[in-house]
Amino acid sequence: MALAKLEQLSKSVVQGPSLATGAQPAKDWMDTPAIFKEGNFAYPAKVEKVEYLNSQDGLNFPNAREWSPDEDDWKLPDGWEKTILDGIKERLDKFRSLKIFMDCCVRCGACADKCHFFLGTGDPKNMPVLRAELLRSVYRNDFTLAGKLLGKMAGGREMTIGVLKEWFMYSYQCTECRRCSVFCPYGIDTAEVTMMLRELLHLVGVGINWILEPASNSNRTGNHMGLQPHTFKDNVDFLAEDVETLTGVKINHSFNRKGAEVLFITPSADVFAEPGLYTAMGYLALFEQIGLDYTWSTYASEGGNFGLFTNNELMKKLNAKMYAEAKRLGVKYIIGGECGHMWRVVHQYMDTMNGPADFMEVPKSPITGTVFENARSSKMIHISEFTADLIKHGKIKLDPSRNAHVMPTYHDSCNPARAMGLMDEPRYILDHVVPKWVEMPENTIREQTFCCGSGTGLNTDEIMELRMRAGLPRANAVKHVIDKHDVNMLSCVCAIDRATLTSLMDYWNPGCGVCGLSELVGNALVMDNEKRAMGYGADGTESELPDGLRTMV
Amino acid sequence: MDLAEAFRNYEDKIVSQWVDYTLSSYKSSTFFKKGPDKFSNPVGGNTREALSKLYKLLTKNGDPQEFIAPLDQIMRIRSIQEFSASEAVAPIHAVKHITREILAKDSERKQFIADLYDFEFAVDLAVLAAFDLYMQCREQLYKVRIKEIKTGTHILTDSKCPSNLLKSDKDDPVNFPI
Ligand code: SF4
Ligand code: SF4
Q1: Pocket test for ligand 2, best of A101, A118, A129, A174 (most atoms within 8 A of CB)
Q2: A486 vs A539: which has the higher pLDDT
Q3: What pLDDT digit, counting tens, does each position of A325-373 carry?
């Protein structure tokens, strides 16, 4: 009797599942269509953004139109199937890696349970192996002999509108974080398969606004927000004034200064959005204290590169700005701020796209004399490498007790960790700037770090639920150290993280803050001739900068 | 032998069927059911942990206030997944039926079914609390979304022209944090 009721319980609340277990019907994945509804897709790109990008030399963003994924008719151009198949062919010829990734998966399943989207949704198409299969099935059908002869029996399928819709859904439920590739015995990088899917979709005018608008802004005014040079300058000036108010030390920074030794480039979000602002204040304080001969640029005013989430050509174009500006200003090398995907572009693609940057010198710290051989080709070093080197040589004075108000853990941002191997420097810095910090569980950090869930341009608010699902594995590990060690701050080295982890914590672990590492450096930094402001801490007592650079005075 | 002992005896069996039923609500649940630890398998791990705690509370006539912590652990997850409200909450209810079924199969303990009133009432309270938590989580989700828009995190794109900063018309939203 009870079991009968249990069956009814499943029946009345779950539409159409198997009566006995409450389980969803086990249909073949190929027969399960992608269904779009408000909340599970990011809004399509605005007509004027697509038109603008399409008007640019060397860029191809056709089919600008009003459309929506939840409508049946996606208003695709005539002959779109051929465009896609030609696009696949072109890419198979151009990118050897793609051909290998299409051919060599043995379906061992090692990657299947490693993706945060799968872990948060339980949707099999979010298993990396199936995500790649979405493209591989078409590849097999049209580009392999077995597929041409046997079609579906050989795992092939034709390019249809249903397939295209599936591509859109699942290439925008992948943050190109590369966690899966760490576990693949063949090194298949599903992130690159997702990149190809997104490129192919752009060929027929299928893209999202949250990516194309910042990308077009970046191309137009230099940064994602479309801010003009004077606004960018004003904001950095405001932050410099804030640092002076808090520390009593005047900041001498400059913009577009020819002949500076170093060009500094960071994500524009550091200059405009909380909590990145405090990270930017940290950079300003540090550079002032060591007397670095550096300049900001209002032209290369964005470290981020949303081209990476779009296509190869746009990524190359946006990346080229940094190097064009370095050349124009005649700097010796570039220091890059706490950005995530900027580093993937610099570390993995820049050299073949726009390099080698022979007009610059191999980065050499003017303070310690360290030569950064690892950046011999790109001529660009990470602020954490630079800072860790300063600490190692005892060139800056740090007082960790100034960070007594925080108990941080460290989130390895996907790109710095997995795309450039930056894992020890941030930890070394933390060891020196805070009294105590703790690691999250081993299988959620370093190479195995879990994504914030909103990278690759998925940090838009209309898919907040999806972001919360995808961020569950990360948030779950943070919760563990909150419960166990009273952690109250999630530190990281990525601007998208600083924005997205804030929302992630607000949902999963309210009360846990998010900060950039350079903010903690700025807090702990003992500056010459400082006169630190007084402020009220959480306990209501007055003391010197109780909340570090966040202190309200 | 009494009901309390029956609850203890069948704890593992009931909880494991309950977890199984709950995880079956996902399209692909094999890994969620098997995945080794809570960090590599957050849905499975948290569901198991929460339902085990909840079972203990439901069977010992515990203070319903204590249900909230384990319920939150599971509802916070189900509230943002692709479930309707009833789908999200239904598994909490399932333990009633699972327990009856298991006791019914045991000829020695069948007689305790008549004594399940308190337990089932506790489950009812837990289901009601789960609905409240579902609503709270949904509200929180929308608040997070609004906060993101208001604090200007969204200015990563979609920004207004900077000259908006100079506008005197206060009704016109200015999308900058500073
Ligand atoms: S790259 Fe990251 S998001 Fe994409 S399939 Fe792999 S693990 Fe998932
Ligand atoms: S781990 Fe690599 S080879 Fe194995 S299924 Fe995944 S992509 Fe294929």
Answers
A1: A129
A2: A486
A3: 999 999 999 999 999 999 999 998 988 899 889 999 999 999 999 999 9
Give A1's pLDDT tier (boundaries 50, 70, 90): low
> Residue A26: what pLDDT?
61
Q: Which residues of chain A make contact with B95, given a CB cutoff of 8 A?
A: none
Q: Does A255 touch chain B (CB under 8 A)?
A: no
Q: What is the CA radius of gyration of chain A?
A: 25
Residues with CB under 6 A from ligand 2: A 105-111, 128-129, 183-184, 186, 188
The partner residue sitting opposite A6, judged by closest CB among B29, B39, B94, is B94
Ligand found nearest the CA of A129: 2
Is residue B157 less than 8 Å (CB to CB) from chain A?
yes
Number of neighbours of residue A529 by Cβ within 10 angstroms: 8
Q: Do A461 and B156 touch (CB under 8 A)?
A: no
Residue B121: partners with Cβ closer than 8 Å, 6 or more residues away: none
Cβ distance of A13 and B177 shorter than 8 Å: no
Q: Whole domain around residue A451: which residue ranges?
A: 215-550
Looking at the partner chain, which of A228, A272, A510 has a beta carbon nearest the beta carbon of B177?
A272
Mean of the per-residue pLDDT values of chain A: 93
- The number of beta carbons lying within 10 Å of the beta carbon of residue A66 is 9
Say whether B97 and A502 touch across the interface (CB within 8 A): no
**What's the whole-model pTM score?**
0.93
**Residues A377-410 pLDDT 10s:** 999 999 999 999 999 999 999 999 999 999 999 9
Ligand 1 pocket: which of A123, A182, A194 to mutate (most atoms within 8 A of CB)? A194
Mutate to test the interface with A, among B28, B32, B142 (most CBs of A within 10 A): B28
Cβ neighbours of residue A245 closer than 8 Å, sequence gap 6 or more: A533, A553
**Among the three residues A173, A207, A241, which one is the final residue of a domain in this structure?**
A207
Do A303 and A320 meet the contact criterion of CB atoms below 8 Å apart?
A: no
Shared domain for A249 and A167, answered yes or no, is no
Mean pLDDT, residues A206-224: 94
Q: How confident is the model at residue B175 (pLDDT cuts 50, 70, 90)?
A: very low
Instruction: Pick the more confident residue, B142 or A538.
Output: B142
Does residue B113 register a pLDDT over 90? no
Average pLDDT over residues A412-424: 95
Cβ–Cβ gap A506/B165 under 8 Å: no
Question: What are the Cα distances from residue A519, in Å, to A15, A237, A243?
Answer: 50, 17, 11
Give the whole-angstrom CA distance, residue A533 versus residue A312: 48
A18 falls within a domain: no
Average pLDDT, rounded, for chain B: 86
The residue count of chain B comes to 178
CA of B55 vs chain A CAs: smallest distance (Å): 18
Predicted pLDDT at A11: 61
Amino acid at A184: C
Contacts of B100 in chain A (CB under 8 A): 1-2
Show the domains of chain B with their CATH numbers: 3-165 (1.10.490)
Decide if the complex's ipTM is over 0.85: yes
A155 and A235 both lie in a single domain: no
Please count the structural domains in chain A.
Answer: 2
Tell how many helices (H) and how many strands (E) occur in chain B: 7, 0
Give the torsion sign (CA, A46, A51, A56, A57).
Answer: positive
